[in-house]
Design a protein that fits this description.
By secondary structure, the protein is α/β, with parallel strands linked by helices. Helices cover 36% and strands 19% of the residues.
Amino acid sequence: MSGRHRRASPVTRWHRRAAQHDGGVFDVAIEEPDLLRADRTARSTRVARAALQGEGDGTGPRGRRRAVASPTSPMIDPRIAARREQVAADAAVAVVRRRRRRATAAVAVALVVSAGALALLSPVAGVHTIEVVGATRTGSDAVRVATRLGSGEPLVRVDVAAATARVRDLPWVRRATLERRWPQAVLVTVEERAPAAIAPCQAAPDGCLVDSGGRVLAPVAGDVAGADELPRLAGVPEAGAPGSQVPEAAEGPLAVAVALPSALRPLVSGVRGEGPEVALDLQAPGRGASPPTVRLGPPERLGEKLTAAATVLARTSVNGLAVLDVRVPESPALTRVRP
């Protein structure tokens, strides 16, 4: 070492003054390292004893894991350790409580859904009333029967599409809608067809009402408004039962009957099919079995042909008319009755 003296630490100086005060001789430089080694040995011994008390696996008598302190680990206040354990226990309790609340909420939701499903499937939410709107000619009872909805049938199980299709199959019904009215009603709204002519049919000797699309509606009855003013189809095959379509041979005369202008309609007593051609029978009192006739030819250019016929008949007396030929609407030909 150099000639300079090493400066003593404060601890060394304190021990030296303490030794001088006691009058004894105490060499700190020699004794202090021995004391430090002894202290480390004692602490290691305590650690070893703690490990032996934990049965060699780090657990105490109560099965809880003990922290094995190293010789250099800081000492922890027992109150802090207890607080940490309390915080961990509270956190565990909070987790359990959250899980219980979630489980309780899930059970409550399941019970509510089940109760709702049972209520929907019970007679409480079943069909007790079928309201019908617009079925003037069809009749509300016929519509109710067509739906095939039983009393008390759960509304949730009502097949709306199938019930609506069955209502549309009724002869007079053009369109129909069905709506659920919670909790115990069904509303059926109907739009009916309008009759356009009277066609010969198997269901009635006086013929059946048909609409513009050829749908057979019902046998002619006196209570049908405007039935006396409808043109009659003649010279065509008989139609089938209500709800069916007129034969194909009757489609041409039906198209003419639908297209008749208001000026001609009061003069026409019938629309007659003559093979591929169509003719109009006019009303002429006293003419008997030979009424005046308007020959239209094939059911083409109906607007032009009917306009030409109306123009000629507006200037000519029907009683003296035999045949009016408007097959060529630009050149109508008139044949009078011979005196």
